[in-house]
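Practice problem: predict the structure.
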Amino acid sequence: MKVNRQDFLNLKSLIELRKLTEGKFKNKKIVEQLKLNGAVTRSQKGSRKYIDLVKEENIFLLLKNYNYNIDSIEEIDSYIEDIFNKKSSRDTIQQYHNNSKEITSKSMNGLYVSSLQKLNIKLDDNTINILPNDGLGYFFFHTQKVEISKNTVIVGVENYQVVWFAKRYEKFFNKPNILFVVITPYMLEWISNLENEYIHFGDYDLAGVNIYLNKVLPRLSSKKYSMFIPNNIEQLIDKYGNSKLYEKQKQYNNLNCNDVKVNNLVTIIKKFKKGIEQEGLSLLNLKGKK
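Answer:
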């Protein structure tokens, strides 16, 4: 979900005034999400509908969940000034967005990929080679037709750095024809037409599990899918987990599924009240294998 300049101003007004007419928000999804996470309640006076502030912190929690690094009214002001009122550099934009779930512009709508082995991919009916190389990724614009072989295994990731440095995670995926793909709305549309095996390599926190269960799985055509979870995930979360990730994501409740390993992961996360982002695995000495 993207928040435009006016709706950022509306969020600021809501915090300051504690009450706002619902119709002021251009993006109606913002209002629905604020109601769902308990930030606001709805009231009505005559024919006019209002939203009343209940929990200010849940507004910033919602922004965090949609990858905006904004924690205060002052940071809303800074964001508006830096992003909307100026021509921002890439570094400035990245400052306000989480690296692990970065927001992309419409001009970059497409597939971000890399591989662990040399792969042949058909791009607009022309065969090209994807070569593994640390620090290198490939981007295919959404208007291009991208085709892969049926034996290519798709690994969906949340973090662009995982695509750029895929070789760091090679020991976790002992299969040929691995293709790392960043999870974006277009990627979800793309995989909905494929029957390739899918492995989810996301964050080991409640938000990461939610993405897998409620965003990825409903879009999959493939009947062969799984979430990569190290065997020693409990020890990893206990020792290296980040409690702030958990505190910001406690609103994710609908995380039950038929996968015992995923359910066990959720139990572990709640037990220690911690989570680990996927890119952290490259820095850890993992002994567990899939």
